[in-house]
Amino acid sequence: MNRIKTVNDFNFKNKTALLRVDYNVPVNKQHIITDDTRIQYSIPTIKKILSENGKIILISHFGRPKKKYDKNFSLKFLVPYLYKKLKVPINFSKSCIGEETNKKVNELKNGEILLLENIRFYKEEEERNENFAFELSKYGDIYVNDAFGVSHRLHTSTTVLPKFFGKKKCIGLLMKKEIQFLNKFISGTGNKPITILLGGAKIISKIKVIENLINFSNHLLIGGGMSYPFIKIKGGKIGNSIIENDKNIEKTLKNILDKYQNSNNRLHLPKDILIAKYYDNKTKTKIVPINSIPNEWMGLDLGPNSIKYFSKIIEKSKTILWNGPVGVFELSNFSLGTKSIAKIIVETTKKGAFSLVGGGDTIAALKMEGLDKKISYLSTGGGAMLESLKGEILPGIKEII
Ligand code: AMP
Predict the structure, then answer these.
(1) Taken in order 364, 368, 369, 372, is the CA torsion positive or negative?
(2) DSSP calls for 58-76
(3) How far apart are the first and last CA of the chain?
């Protein structure tokens, strides 16, 4: 964190900030924002620049348009929303470069914002295109990246555009928080004990996360579909449970088990499991030991002993990270484990622990219980958070250092 400049290192008086944000927010059919966390978290950066009488040009993407204009993906719906939040003129440009944008940029006054149209309407955004970046760079004096959610992607506005700003580039305050909080886990600087809970279904994308984080944490809990590959390798019976199988990961999982479960007990797997034959709310369920799931049955949620076991570890922790549900929480039959974990993390946070939660499904599970506001920090980037947790500096951050 020492080497990277933030907006606090600059004075924006009479300067134009080219501010890359991630306003890829969830919306309903009427284009009403259903979760504005990403915008809320970007406000401190905007206010800092405007308070110094600077101008802001906002660059963002929204959804996955087919690299051309599509009114369903236009950012125009954000204009009234931003005005309500900031009470300053919000100008809008229907393009990101070219004559119309030049005109709007020239007309922009100190203390005002110009929002450019969805940058993903340009195929160049995903092509690391120097010319496109150069055209954009003409509009700003200082480049600011506050788009944590896309900082793991090799896109033009995050990894090529900053190259045109020499030393006049920095990260915003949202990005600063994400880096600082993730560092508690990546470098083990958080108060101990540090506990990390990983769930969800896809283990392959998280294997490097496990290998990296286990060095810095006191407890690594594995739940959900992530646990079955481990159980299988240990010789357990997992029936029809979900398993992301890949011959190449077996050896890695074996090494992790040998190193951390058998010898120093840092890796924790569920004890018992709730099983069913079908993904259905009305189907019959049973609780069995996790290594004895009968044929045709699937493990779909933590059993009561697993909930108790995980909860005991969490409630003694001072720093907690959670990514991935511990069961098929979308169906009420299989949601008790995930709800219980959410509750115990919230209770431990109330007692003074720091909690960080990331990933769309995990945050959705918190919201279902109305607990999202009771977590210390919700990461604004699921994919970017997982990439950071592998111990790698994200491309969008590397370009600022
Ligand atoms: P991921 O994208 O890897 O974080 O996976 C999230 C998904 O994992 C959610 O939709 C959950 O329903 C699913 N999931 C969690 N536990 C299980 C399980 N035991 N069996 C099947 N799916 C699961």
Answers:
(1) positive
(2) EE---S---SS--GGG-ST
(3) 9
Q: What pTM was estimated for this model as a whole?
A: 0.93
Most distant CA atoms of the chain, gap in Å:
70
Q: Which of 68, 192, 316, 360 is catalytic?
A: 360
The reply to whether 266 belongs to the active site is no
User: Which domains occur in the chain, in start order?
Assistant: 7-173 (3.40.50.1260), 187-389 (3.40.50.1260)
Q: Is 242 in the pocket of ligand 1 (CB under 6 A)?
A: yes
Taking the CA of residue 203 as reference, the ligand 1 atom at the shortest distance is: 3
* Stated length of the chain: 401
Phi, psi values for residue 60, rounded to 5°: -150, 165
Query: Rounded to whole angstroms, how far apart are CA atoms 170 and 137?
Result: 14
What is the 361 CA–ligand 1 centroid distance (Å)? Answer: 9
Active-site residue, selected from the candidate residues 47, 68, 103, 202:
202
Q: Which residue has the tokens 């120093």?
A: 264
325 in Cβ contact with 338 (< 8 Å): yes
Model confidence over 56-77: pLDDT tens digits?
999 999 999 999 999 999 999 9
Tokens 């300067």 sit at which residue? 15
Confidence (pLDDT) at 261: 75
- What's the token pair of residue 225? 């579909």
Q: Which two tokens stand for residue 50?
A: 């405007």
Q: How far is the CA of 242 from the centre of ligand 1 (A)?
A: 9
Q: Is the CB of 162 within 6 Å of ligand 1? A: no
DSSP 15-47: -EEEEE------B-TT--BS--HHHHHHHHHHH
Residue 197 CA to ligand 1 centre (angstroms): 14
What number does the ligand 1 atom closest to the CA of 223 have? 16
Q: Is 224 in the pocket of ligand 1 (CB under 6 A)?
A: yes
**pLDDT beneath 70: ranges in the chain:** 1-2, 262-264
Write the pLDDT tens digit of every residue in 341-383.
999 999 999 999 999 999 999 999 999 999 999 999 999 999 9
Q: Which residues contact 326 (CB under 8 A, 6 or more apart)?
A: 197, 199, 223, 224, 270, 301, 302, 310, 337, 338, 341
CA torsion 117→119→121→127, rounded to 10°? 160
Q: Is the peptide bond before 26 cis (omega within 30 degrees of 0)?
A: no
